[in-house]
Amino acid sequence: LMQLFRPLDMLGWVYREIKQGLIDMEAMFGLLDTEAEIADRPGALPLAVNAGEVRFDGVDFGYDPERQILHGVSFAIPAGNTVAVVGESGAGKSTLSRILYRFYDIQAGRVTIDGQDIRTVTQASVRAAIGIVPQDTVLFNDTIGYNIGYGRAGATQAEIEAAARRAQIHDFIVSLPQGYDTVVGERGLKLSGGEKQRVAIARTILKDPPILILDEATSALDSRTESAIQDALSDVSARRTTLVIAHRLSTIVDADEILVMDKGRIAERGRHEDLLAKGGLYAEMWTRQQDTEDETAEAAE
Ligand code: ATP
Fold it and tell me: Could you tell me which residue ranges the ABC transporter domain spans (predicted)?
């Protein structure tokens, strides 16, 4: 009888892998209604990743031809650096990350990783080089250990725990009655937004990609969770090429470069202090956020 079940187990595993990949991507990119339109070029080779330098050169893009979203966007993230993108809702921040992950092809310009145009290499190799910590992680109905181990096939329990420690979620997990075997997700234990994000960070630590996309959560977290997450994120982004889609400016004051997007164009760029001194859009956003934070703090008192 066991022999009959084993192939079924295997099928279940394959199904779960595929299903989870789709869930992650759909959740990350809100692609539930769109089909993948991107195909590998015949004979495309895998990306040869060296240090992981990312470059956008004169990128024009629209989801449909009638409505252009990005206009001549150029920036570079030297290997190991962090570039943060800020701007009003709808300015095109998440669109940059979808293009880097090659969910869409651009209409003009070039996007390269270590000098290779991402249209000329296989999609799978591009995606293997990039780790994503999305705003809202969709968990799989399985154990929390499985949800972390999913970051790398064949990860051992010791590796899973080491990743969980670095993501500041280990103590929480061992406090659960079933520890790493606790079932989470829709039919199991519901995790908070901050806990789910740390699971995503642990997964990414296991995947160990040279390039990272962090899509910061917009939802407010309590300050202890917030600082645990910030610590975990700084740990995971250290030495990796990182693109941060930021909503709270206080988290990106140390970024190597900040891009301020306005209606699909880079309106300002520079380091935090330079942008403040400039007294433009960024300085205005900063003042506005400080005021809101003060009000929130007062309301909490
Ligand atoms: P937010 O801070 O609200 O997440 P954002 O700066 O990340 O905003 P994007 O998600 O990049 O903004 O969206 C930029 C523009 O592209 C918006 O006007 C949006 O309506 C449009 N857009 C986003 N996704 C799609 C899509 N799948 N199809 C068509 N238009 C889209």
Answer: 54-288
